[in-house]
Amino acid sequence: MSDATLATPPMRRFRVSRRALPYLLSLPALLACILILIPFATAVGYSLQRYRLSQPWAREWNWGQNYVDLFNDPAFWNTLRVSLSYAFVVVGIELLLGLGIALLLQRRTRFNNFVSIMLLMPLMTAPALAALMWKLMTNPGFGILSYFMALIGFPDFRWAASPNTAFLTVVLVDVWVYTPFIMILLLAGLRSLPQQPFEAAALDGVPRLFVFWRITLPMLTPYLLTAVLFRMIESIQQFDIIYAMTQGGPGNRLTVFQVEAYLNFFQATNVGRSAAILMILWVITYILSTIFIKNWLRLREKTRAGA
Amino acid sequence: MDTMSPLERVLRGIAITLVILFFMFPIFWIFLMSFQTNETILRVPPSIVFEPTIANYQALLTGRLETAAGTLEIRFMRNLFNSLFLSTASVALALVLGIPAAYAFARLKFRGSEEIAFTLLSFRFAPPLLVLLPLVIYFQQIGLANTYIGLIWVYQLICLPLILWIVRGYFEDIPADIEHAYRIAGHRWFTTFRKVALPLAGPGIAAAGLLAFIFAWNNFIFALVLASADKQPVTVGALAFVTASGIQFGQIAAAIVLSIAPVFALALYAQRYLVEGLSLGAVKG
Amino acid sequence: MTIKLTDVVKSFKNEVVLDGVSLSVEAGETLVLFGPSGAGKTVLLRLIAGVIDPDEGRIEVNGRDMEGVEPEDRGMGMAFQNFALFPHMTAFDNIASPLTARRQNRTTLKAGVESVAKLLKIDHVLGHMPKALSNGQKQRTALARALAAKPNVLLLDDPLRNVDAKLRFEMRLELPRLLKQQNATVIYVTQDYKEAMAFGDRIAVMDGHGIRQVGTPEHIYLRPASTKIASLFGDPAINLLEVRPERGEHGVQVRLSGRAIPLDRRHAASIGHDCLLGVRPETIRFVPEGTPGAVPVEVEAETPLNEKTVTLVWTRQRREIMVSRPSGSIGPAHGRAWIVIDPGHAMLFDKESGARIDPSSDAAALQGEVA
Q: How far apart are CA C164 and CA C45, in angstroms?
């Protein structure tokens, strides 16, 4: 190579400047971002309007009226109560069960790995289809679970069809689908913990329960937090299982946020009210997801540093 | 850990058996049901002994159901096709949009990059109906209502954040010097991206794509709100099928089996990456 | 090609890495960037390669400003400390990468790769993937890749850092000859002073975000700008003894254990100031008792280091001095011994600033007048 090669500035090809390149690369994602933000902004607008699909001519800004109406409506408080109790109950059960199973499968044996992969199957089942499966099993005519209930002395156990047991039935399906999520996250967490503290504790003859509370749990906290917050955000928005199972019924037993908003939109055609309900849900999930993302980032940093 | 008492061993065994029973039984039972006729399904007491039939699958595959009342048309194969098409196209689009952005966020840190990345991540957590309901109205106005294009766009809500954050992690794992070396050797930025960054992040990209496919396949609410019968995927179609076919329980079970089998196969194939995908790249399995 | 850096500044996230660096490298010379880790050597090399941009300052190659010139257009070759081989390509394809970029046809490309591989003795492993190569082969592949296109500028980032001692020894013998053959301008980064002295036509000593001294190896060794630089070169490190020069019979002298050691008379300006006397261990000799000017010492420990033997001795004031002599030469018996310091090789440093007081410079004279 001669000096001349370098001295002639390369002009042959179109060149993107170094500064512009990253923007150009993320432009498509950025556009997708903006395109999704438009309906979001529209939804905020709807929530501040009197807007019924059945009466488009009566559409007008009524500012906070939809929210005022909601707060004065027992149906909304029912929605809030059902959503929160649903989220807390499912996450609580899934956490305990998931942690228990993760501890059972902690050791890396062939059998344990096989079981943990098998347990992923419920998680990989579409929640709407899972609901359908459980509907088939709890059918009063031929459902295997209804049969079992009859065997143990509940001949007419109605599962999701009865106001008394609908909540628990849906919780059961949610637990079936999502416990493996917490389990697999905690299992990954448990298996990535450094071994020295445990070996030291074993050498010193520290009781196992003490080791669990004082070493395992504290070290597992970031994983627990990530799993719980993730599930919290998802379960407070749960729609698929509940809608596929009971469509919010019987009565208003399971009219959680998104189901209530869906029914308000498509059945009552009350767009303004539906949007207001969703905005309130959004505020709740936004707060949760802010906490989640902080914790998630810390965990991500740790994982990357270890990689 | 190696010094387990016999009692503990037994208790652990019982616990694991119960866990497997609870999580596996529904799948096992539905699988059995899919090979049964209505008569054996409706038997009391139920039994796992029966003469298996593939009639349910036949009915689904041929799209017609012969009953005493006459021939009924079943659109389940259409749903299956829709699921396949929607998921594949959505993942393809998400890869096209997400990979360059993931690379930019991983390598060429720039002003506003983290903000965009986090906004995209937050979509994953926003209530989907919040975006879907205005889209019902918009799509009607701009002619995207009940189109594949409209649905594929909305599917980006779940596919894009996943692809972006997982692939970003894989790009970050490639030592920057390897790319520097290729550039210094005399290759353009784009050649380097194509010949070095992409092949090295390849397994991660494939895994992220598979996972995004699974999530798209399992989605219910998008199509429920935005698609009518001829564009609906299996998740929505199966539900509609229940009301349509009424009492053909064996077929419902067969439809469920056909709908979840592809996902199980993919999940099994990508299971090494599953934890990472489920935690959006925060935890490695 | 000449390389010229002017007032180059670079920081990462508010942390200054290079604080106004200026340097010029002559065409065809081998310049060694030497310094402790964290001094900014690697960053400087990357700035020249163009994979990162300076915040301020100019980088010129053959007089042409490199701002906005992409790394692929700079026509340089670079070898990385961690090798940075492309893990998905064979050794052949790794080495060929600069040639494919230059769109060479298949035959010239093959010939090019094979000749450089032969030169580096890796022609038998060209079909291997990097993970099948030994560390030494990886390192040679990385070097071959840097050399393959016969670039006019070669940037070598501590290429011997991650290889074992035996290989490093071999390469230390082989590499200077190889680099001379290339006829390229070479910038070689290292933390090893022996490598620096063996390879460099000139050495630029980096420390604390900048270049502290540039000069030939002899110059840096014999006339280091500061105690810091003096200590970086030489093993065992230079002895630094607190002294206060005084007026003696023959001019200027310092006292060690009561014995006067004469200094260059031009050090008169330092009389009465607190100074450090820098004496390289190999310029100290053991002498028989009664030799004029000999300093009595206590022999504390002796360590043979291959070709030389290092003795730690204590003066009467319990000051430690390292003495090094060729192994096999006669050393002192245990206990008491006498040493002579060669005044011609003794250096004087200002105790406070650590700067070497150069008796020939005007600055020293001026300092004396003010005092």
A: 24
- Is the pLDDT at C173 greater than 60? The verdict is yes
ipTM of the complex as predicted:
0.90
Q: Say yes or no: C38 and C168 in one domain.
A: yes
* A4 CB-side CA count, 13 A: 0
Domains and CATH numbers, chain A: 73-306 (1.10.3720.10)
Is the Cβ of A126 closer than 8 Å to some Cβ of chain B?
yes
Structural domain including C135 reads 3-224
| Rg of the Cα atoms in chain C | 25
Q: Is residue C316 part of a domain?
A: yes
Instruction: State whether residue A19 sits within 8 Å of chain C by CB.
Output: no
- Supply C199's token pair: 């390879």
Contact B181 C86 (CB under 8 A): yes
- C230: in domain: no
Residue A56 has pLDDT above 50, yes or no: yes
Distance from CA of C122 to the nearest CA of A (A): 24
- Give yes or no for a contact between C233 and C225, defined as CB atoms under 8 angstroms apart: no
On whether both C103 and C141 belong to a single domain, the answer is yes
Q: Which residues contact C304 (CB under 8 A, 6 or more apart)?
A: C310, C327
> Model confidence over A233-249: pLDDT tens digits?
999 999 999 999 998 87
Query: Which chain B positions have a beta carbon within 8 Å of C149's beta carbon?
Result: 185-186
Q: Domain count of chain C?
A: 2
Q: Which of A136, A130, A93 is nearest to A242 (CA)?
A: A130
* pTM value > 0.90: no
Q: Delimit the domains of chain B by residue range.
A: 6-73, 76-278
Rounded to a whole number, what is the distance in Å from the CA of C77 to chain B's nearest CA?
A: 7
Say yes or no: C244 and C218 in one domain: no
My answer on whether C143 and C7 are in the same domain is yes
Token pair in block for residue B52: 């298996």
Q: Confirm if B274 and B58 have CB atoms less than 8 A apart.
A: no
Structure tokens at B197: 């960054």
The alpha helices in chain B, defined as continuous H runs, are 6-33, 38-41, 55-62, 76-107, 113-123, 128-142, 148-173, 176-184, 189-192, 198-218, 221-226, 234-245, 249-269, 271-278
Q: Is residue C232 part of a domain?
A: no
More confident residue, A30 or B259: B259
In CATH, what number does B76-278 get? 1.10.3720.10
Give SS3 for A14. Answer: coil
Q: Tell me whether residue C213 is in a domain.
A: yes
| DSSP character at residue B196 | I
